[in-house]
Amino acid sequence: MPRYAYVNGRYLRHADAGVHIEDRGYQFADGVYEVCEVRHGQIVDLTRHLNRLDRSLGEIRIRAPMSRAALVGIIRELLRRNRVRNGLFYLQVTRGVARRDHVFPSAETPASLVITAKSTDPGIIAGKNAKGIKAVTVPENRWDRVDVKTIGLLPNVLARQQAREAGAQEAIFVDSDGLVTEGAATNVWLVDSSGRLVTRPAEHGILRGITRTTLMDVAARLGLEIEERAFSVEEMRSAREVFITAATSICFPVVEIDGVPIANGHPGMAAQRIREAFFDIAEKTAI
Ligand code: PDD
To answer: Known catalytic residue: 149?
Structure first.
């Protein structure tokens, strides 16, 4: 079955889809994005993802390319065309195509909108949940505005690659005070000795993950206490549980960091309970 991508008003065969070489996303990483999960034919937490998209666009002063209703119509159509039941869509908006110049192009330059969709194998995710994943720590070296979900991800790419080469699946950034910020593409959580969930406040230093936000609703429903505060690498290494959250992976247990097991080296109960309750509580939008 051919895959389709949406590019600036057209549904193109994925293999042939492209943007102009002077697109500012390509030239400057001048754009923002969202990744949203699709599960059992339903889009997960769509409203929150589109709210964050609006915020990201506002922070870098790109005008939304169309109304939300039109955007949702395109997302649904693309998912249908690609027959995605379990998978994700990726959406990016850039400042459009213009002759290369650092300053913004004229206000009439239309933003570029690209959306792709793909199916994923639920078995792979289930395997990671059952076994847990390994992580490595890396020095935080990103810019100050990681709260904006920009497509400028080179430090994240290099960190993930470093993890891969060390036989791990995620890299966890650690700031110059020895405090954990977040993963290369995930938020990081620990469970302390009294069973409390701890995660860094999202005011500064991390992306406010949608999964993170919904997980707070889940925790409230399960009666789990959450403390939003920064924590050190040492505290993370000696935690009862560590897990990471992101759309499409929800809540992967981390069983080893820098080659050292977390607790008994097996996935913990808190992550499992949260995962099991997550989709009951998350917003679901039919395709
Ligand atoms: N990444 N922090 C970073 C740096 C991220 O890139 C992501 C998501 C998250 C988790 O956010 P959310 O729960 O909204 O997915 C935190 C996506 C999945 C990606 O880049 O592929």
So the answer is: yes
Question: Quick one: 15 and 106 in the same domain?
Answer: yes
pLDDT score, position 254: 98
The residue whose CA is least distant from atom 16 of ligand 1 is: 186
Ligand 1 atom index nearest CA of 187? 16
Domain ranges, residue 55: 4-120
Which residues, judged by CB distance below 6 Å to any ligand atom, belong to the binding site of ligand 1? Answer: 35, 156, 182, 185-187, 207, 209-212, 245-248
Q: Using a cut of 0.85, tell me whether the model's pTM lies above it.
A: yes
Residue 2: the pLDDT is 67
| 184 in the same domain as 138 | yes
Instruction: Tell me: do 153 and 237 sit in the same domain.
Output: yes
Looking at residue 41, its amino acid is G
CA of 51 to the centre of ligand 1 (A): 15
CB 137 within 8 A of CB 261: no
CATH of the domain at 249: 3.20.10.10
Q: Are both 12 and 113 inside the same structural domain?
A: yes
- 188 C-alpha to ligand 1 centroid (Å): 11
Report pLDDT for 29: 98
Helical residues (DSSP H) of the chain, grouped into ranges: 24-28, 46-59, 68-81, 122-131, 154-165, 210-222, 233-237, 269-281
